Each structure stands twice: as structure tokens, then as C-alpha cells.
Amino acid sequence: MAALDRVKVLVLGDSGVGKSSLVHLLCQNQVLGNPSWTVGCSVDVRIHDYKEGTPEEKTYYIELWDVGGSVGSATSVKSTRAVFYNLLNGIILVHDLTNKKSSQNLYRWSLEALNRDVAPTGVLVTNGDYDREQFADNQIPLLVIGTKLDQIPETKRNEVLTRTAFLAEDFNAEEINLDCTNPRYLAAGSSNAVKLSRFFDKVIEKRYFLKDGNQVCHFS
């Protein structure tokens, strides 16, 4: 069997938001029983059928790079992470729906990865005040995933999900909210599964197909 083409997707967010549990669920379709802190970076692979059910259907490897979530602003910490940001094809931004600060920090995480040579030194957002233009020219597909949906009381759920919807809009990204301990949130045919598939299709298109007449950068 011929080797499958692949794309590289970073999974970014603060420590403790559930990135490792999410990646395990996406790649193994199983709940991670005993998650531990990620040191450096961990890589897992998901098989994805691009444009499934159409004549253009083709199978790809999606490499999910789970980057350790230390938010320390020390230059050494950021320079260590920067090596993982090379030749990325997509980014999944993960935040804890019960932790507003982890949502705000997604701005910093995205800018650190997209502008690794001039990475900011702190959180760039205060009460929603940030420069939308920083993301206007971004060509890297983004997906925002909120975790721990099950831990939000029903009385506060609308308020929280309204806030995070604006967050996804800021990134010009689709949004998925789920509980990483319950696979049904990504069940085949569900709206979340459709959004995830659409995101991976977009990553593959940006990676392997022409953009404005120029071949996009290849990851090898």
C-alpha cells in the first residue's frame, strides 16, 4: 500500500484544558482514562477521508501535535515551543469552557504559533479588547474547541456559549463544544463531526492544492 499523504495540525491551549484527552478521542475514538501533563510535544495520527463520498475522495494522515501548555512568558519556554510550529498546516485552539482565562489566552497561543519569530510576551486581550486585524491575513485554517461542556450548569450554559461563539468569530473559525469523556459528542453524522471533517478538508486543501496560482508550502 502506498504511503498516505499527511498534514500537520497543532493542538494549542493552556495546561489542563484537555488537549491530550481531545487528541486521544480524535485519534483512537476512545476516552483517555488517565491523562497526564504533556511535556514538550506529543504526536498522534488520525486517518481522514478527504471529501468523503465524492469522486475526489482520498485518504490522508492527520498528524495532531499536542503542544505542552505552559503559559510562562520566558523566552526559553517560547523558543523551545517554536520548533513545533515549523511548517504547520492547521491549528486547533482548545479552551476550557469553565475557565474564561483559558479562552482569552487563545489569542496569545494563536499569535505565538502564527508569528513565532515575534511571539508576544503576554496575554494580548483584556475584556475582549484586541486587534482583529492580526488575524485578517491568516491563511492557516483554525478550529476552536471548548472542553468540559458537561461541567457548565444549565443555568449558565447560554451565557458561556454566547461568549465563546464570539471568540470563534474573532478567529474566523468554526466552533465545537464537547465533553472529552463522552464520545457521542463526535459521533458520525453529528454536527460536531461534520465541522471537524470540514476543518480537516480545509487543511488538506490549503496544503495540497493551488492557492492563488501558487503551490502552498509542503510538510515533509
TrEMBL record:
Keywords: GTP-binding, Nucleotide-binding. The keyword Electron transport does not apply. This is Rab-like protein 3. Required for KRAS signaling regulation and modulation of cell proliferation. Regulator of KRAS prenylation, and probably prenylation of other small GTPases. Required for lymphocyte development and function. Not required for myeloid cell development. The keyword Ion transport does not apply. It holds the Pfam family Roc. PANTHER family: DRAB5-RELATED. GO terms for molecular function: GTP binding. Gene3D superfamilies: P-loop containing nucleotide triphosphate hydrolases. Belongs to the small GTPase superfamily. Rab family. It comes from the Eukaryota. It comes from Chionis minor.
